[in-house]
Amino acid sequence: MSKQFDVIVIGGGPGGYIAAIRAAQLGFNVACIDEWKNDKGGPAPGGTCTNVGCIPSKALLQSSEHFEHANKHFAEHGITATGVKMDVAKMIARKDSVVKQNNDGILYLFKKNRVSFFHGRGSFVKAAEGGYEIKVAGAAEETLTGKQIIIATGSNARALPGTPFDEELVLSNDGALRVGAVPKKLGLIGSGVIGLEMGSVWRRLGAEVTILEGLPTFLGAVDEQIAKEAKKAFDKQGLKIELGVKVGEIKTGKKGVSIAYTNAKGEAQSLEVDKLIVSIGRVPNTIGLNTEAVGLQLDERGAVVVDADCKTNLPGVWAVGDVVRGPMLAHKAEEEGVAVAERIAGQHGHVNFNTIPWVIYTSPEIAWVGRTEQQLKADGVKYKAGSFPFLANGRARALGDTTGMVKMLADAETDEILGVHIVGPQASELIAEAVVAMEFKASSEDIARICHAHPSLSEATKEAALAVDKRTLNF
Asked: Of 273, 280, 278, 279, whose CA–CA distance to 210 is shortest?
């Protein structure tokens, strides 16, 4: 007999598990279906973010940063460290432990909030009276019936045509997180978030890293001034980034991977590497969802078509996160998950796409919210710009990391903040102040008049706000 639920969530990633918990908190009888498995075959909810994305990559970034500091920067502080070595197996084991703690934490939250968890793949069977029938294909097949369905099935790494991932030589983000030894030469195709973060990890550990990017500009979505500053830092670190390339034939063999390509000048080139990470974007995951059984509409990319409220073309069916339009960011998925749960409850769930922050966790970190200077120019918006370098920030000097700046853009007439862009230490944390300010329609003067602790990196944000009106507190 089918088990009955008010809400069934298909997918236990950031959008799915958050939606399930919020719906349960609002008084609904909720089920969440997720198929991720750990190395023992047990449940591993959390989706790409927790298992092969945000969380494990940050664990490796932290480990590799410690290693680089011990080798290159401790001496500046009077600390002598000799014979420093990296145990890659132990680093990977720590990463796996961090992932498991997050998996277990989600399962605990399900139990605490009385969310029924089903381990397996969820798919539509048919429309049923008052809802939809959902099959769970796991260790034992089960059938559930839900009045409201939330699809949160996430996304998959996009492979190069003709070059599938084998996760041994040609790696997706999954394989890149499980490399067992430092490769002598590492190639990456794509200079986006995954490419830069994984390239940074293995470069710090001693790999010779080359990144091939098809676009003629570096980090095209980032404010141009910030992107140029970041590129200078990466060049100095030893990351080799080639722009405007066209990748040709890729061959794998006993010696590694051979990549044929043409450079920006149209000259034929070849790159020989031990391993190749392909990070050219992600595609919505609707594999096995059996959308045709109920007539769920997908777009040309395979994404679930939704309106501004995340409603699909089917009554009572919603979709959130990477599987729908918008940026593929874990926190965007979480916001949509909460909003949908609240809309089902008759409340007014809200997601502001204009204040969703973006972060690249390299060193220096890159973070931004709102529009870039080039976007404002293209839109014909009159604006004022102010920036402040970390080189002039006392806390950054004490940290020993003065790379980068804070840049603020404000409306020329109203002074409302339109965008904030940061490259430098702890940018991922500093950007939160800008998000709050923009949510409350703050002006640059509001930030300039708020007392910031001294010494702190956040003073650079205050100084950037002052610079919008050509003022400064630094003499």
From this structure: 273
Residue 254 identity (one-letter amino acid): K
pLDDT in tens, 386-408: 999 999 999 999 999 999 999 99
Tokens representing residue 18 in the block: 């958050």
Cα-Cα-Cα-Cα dihedral sign, residues 327, 332, 334, 336: negative
At 292 the three-state DSSP class reads helix
3-state secondary structure of 84: coil
> How many CB atoms are closer than 10 A to CB 146?
27
362 touches 325 (CB < 8 A): no
Q: How many CB atoms lie within 10 A of CB 248?
A: 12
Amino acid at site 100: K
- Residues 113-159: tens digit of each pLDDT: 999 999 999 999 999 988 999 999 998 899 999 999 999 999 999 99
Contact 403, 464 (CB under 8 A): no
**Token digits of residue 286:** 């609707």
By annotation, the residues acting in catalysis are 454
What are residue 347's phi and psi, to 5 degrees?
-95, 180
**Cβ burial 317-330 (10 Å sphere, 16+ → b, else e):** bbbbbbbbbbebbb
